[in-house]
Amino acid sequence: MRTLPAVLESINSAGRHTELWIVDSGSTDDTVKFAKSEGAQVLHRDWDGMVGQRRFILDHCRSNGAKWALMLDADEWPTATLWEAIDNIVSTAPPQISGATLNRQLLLHGKPLRFVCQPERRLRLVRPERATVIGSCGEQAEGIHDRIETDGSTIALPGTLMHDAFADVEDALSRNLGYARVEADNNPTNGSLFKLVASPLAAFCKQWFLKGGFLDGRRGFLMSQTMAMITWQKHLLAAEKRWLIQRNAPPGKTYR
Length: 256
Hints:
Spore Coat Polysaccharide Biosynthesis Protein SpsA, Chain A; two-stranded parallel ribbon; seven-stranded mixed beta sheet; alpha/beta
């Protein structure tokens, strides 16, 4: 609910949609009431991971004859420039174009980070009948490494998809702990001693130095360090799982 007003304001201000569907998994706040008041049709589906939710809404778009579908998370909304580009491709795209990638820009403390995690392109605009949703970290991946694919060509649109993912660093760390658990359970390459030590440092250096996060100032440092901590959480939980398995392994068998 924290970000939904901004999302629906952007959608309704653009006025380029013919149908607006929101998938809700059982909100206990005013999310459903607010969404309906803003003209959205709310569909209920019990949560079983982001992969299943994306497939559900994509199937719904397909079965309702939608020619194009813009698939947004509840914390994402296009800028005016991006809306214009979306309108243009929906109106003029040749048949071989089946989707478009949007550059997602992370916000922290309500302001965009111009270097950390940039560029970050996501396939969000697709022809539903030619698109599928893939989960690369198990079917219950809760949004980790899930992606949309199409059977045709895609193009990159100008403009920005704003991504207000975290209220602050504490929010980022607490929410990503759940994702780290999923990674630990589904990705056997995580959790080695080398990765536990080296990967967090590499994650920080990537954002702070290679991506130019230092140009984002203090917020850039906070998010670069947050990315390192998220990586550390993932490998720490995976390492614990590995070591517990090894401790209980049959004699003569080890796990690395």
